[in-house]
Amino acid sequence: QEDVFKKLVSHCKEYGFVFPSSDIYDGLGAVYDYGQMGVELKNNIKKYWWDSMVLLHENIVGLDSAIFMHPTIWKASGHVDAFNDPLIDNKDSKKRYRADVLIEDQLAKYDDKIDKEVAKAAKRFGESFDEAQYRSTNGRVLDNQAKRDALHARFAKALNDGNLDDLRQIIVDEEIACPISGTKNWTEVRQFNLMFSTEMGSTSDGAMKVYLRPETAQGIFVNYLNVQKTGRMKIPFGIAQIGKAFRNEIVARQFIFRMREFEQMEMQFFVKPGTELDWFKQWKEIRLKWHKSLGFGDDKYRYHDHDKLAHYANAATDIEFLMPFGFKEVEGIHSRTNFDLSQHEKFSGKSIKYFDPELNDSYTPYVVETSIGVDRMFLSIMSASFCEEQLESGESRVVLKLPAALAPVKLAVMPLVKKDGLPEKAREIIDDLKFHFNCQYDEKDSIGKRYRRQDAIGTPYCVTVDHQTLEDNCVTLRNRDTMQQERVAISELNNIIADRVSI
Ligand code: ATP
């Protein structure tokens, strides 16, 4: 699986999906740029989300709030005091790690060991993996399982209590070594705030410290009454926003999974107090359905309900996706209570209560949030779509089986040869279709090579213009996944493609 992941990362670079930021300066940690294909895919993902939220729901509207906000907002939201990661340094390598991630890696090692033992037992007794796991009589399995469970319980307690000494003690007791130096010489654990800050303007007292927003949600909260009043919205209603967020992540790993500059698609749904858990349940279901509608297979998703809740939440779940490195969070759904709005009332001194015309009374709404990372969604889609196929001819091909609606290029148009008026005919077709879909013209190399290039960027359809086209105005239409070809009239192309690339 790790191998597949490496291939995917290099594929992203080779075909213009994702480049390391500042590549000619050897990159910048956990910051990435999206190339000519990446930006198209990313825009399509955003549109797919936006349409499903704003277009399809009468009671959800959009917003685009600024990245810079009044610094008191981050005091009110709790980010200045509580948006921290527990860090530990290795004294020999001088490398810094997140204490919780070191322990999570240790848990994953136990899981690996257990899986290996179960697989061995399955082989020995001629059972399936599931049967062996169910029986699980192997002493070594039970032993590792017990150690893992004990570690998990201790870890959850330390996190819950915010006990930094305990976190360190776990690392010491488990004899966790530094991945770089291999030594176990650790410092104390200390908290590190994840917000980036900069200075704005200059006043007689000096410049004002402002933060780059670590989530887009607060821009929605401080605008909710502006939107409600000007849009004459009635509770329940939602505000959706897509935008950049910034976090000074210490352990930046796994490509675009954990970045320092990333993009979020968030929707905050404002509801009557007391109804939030029903809405939470509904949104949980709606969001999972949305993910599954992409067609990668239902077994690729699961919920992870949180037992440990953030200070603002009374229910929380993650939608996890099976990445090449295991199930990982792609989206968070949180019942955020009235915490944020109440805090903003307190810190701003302004009343931001909603007047409910039905109750003839005012209250502070409760909020249910759905928050998804564009980049993680991008990674999940790329990893689910990336295939290496062995063909009957003995050749192999790399194909991105992207859902057609998300593919960066919908149609490639190729003249069979670069002469006899075929390029002109191909251009004519593109000129007709380019207002409807993203089309690409390609005349270089053999047709086989051109198909491979389009497969590699996930183009669902290729059209080939040959000599006969000049006579009968028909072209060959090739399907990316089945590689089947059909002869269709040029006049029909628009309808056929439109029909097949819509969601
Ligand atoms: P994690 O536990 O992985 O750090 P989180 O629980 O802090 O994530 P939230 O604050 O709930 O994440 O943010 C909502 C979504 O934003 C996440 O589900 C994820 O898709 C995305 N996200 C958060 N941090 C990052 C990051 N550093 N890089 C890319 N996407 C991110």
TrEMBL record:
GO cellular component: cytoplasm; extracellular exosome; microvesicle
Residue ranges of domain Aminoacyl-transfer RNA synthetases class-II family profile in the record: 154-415
GO BP annotations, alphabetical order: diadenosine tetraphosphate biosynthetic process; glycyl-tRNA aminoacylation
Cellular compartment(s): Cytoplasm
Residues binding ATP, per UniProt: 247-249, 257-262, 329-330, 373-376
Protein origin, superkingdom: Bacteria
Catalytic EC class: ligase
Binding locations of substrate: R98, E215, F262, E263, Q264, M265, E266, E369, T370, S371, I372, G373
Stored Pfam families: HGTP_anticodon (PF03129), tRNA-synt_2b (PF00587)
Record keyword Transmembrane present: no
GO molecular function terms attached to this record: ATP binding; bis(5'-nucleosyl)-tetraphosphatase (asymmetrical) activity; glycine-tRNA ligase activity
Key words, A-Z: Aminoacyl-tRNA synthetase, ATP-binding, Cytoplasm, Ligase, Nucleotide-binding, Protein biosynthesis
Catalysed reactions, as listed in the record: tRNA(Gly) + glycine + ATP = glycyl-tRNA(Gly) + AMP + diphosphate
EC number: 6.1.1.14
Main localization category: cytoplasm
Quaternary context: Homodimer.
Record family assignment: Belongs to the class-II aminoacyl-tRNA synthetase family.
Reported function: Catalyzes the attachment of glycine to tRNA(Gly).
NCBIfam families recorded: glyS_dimeric, PRK04173.1
Annotated protein name in UniProt: Glycine--tRNA ligase
Species assigned in the record: Bacteroides reticulotermitis JCM 10512
Underlying gene: glyQS
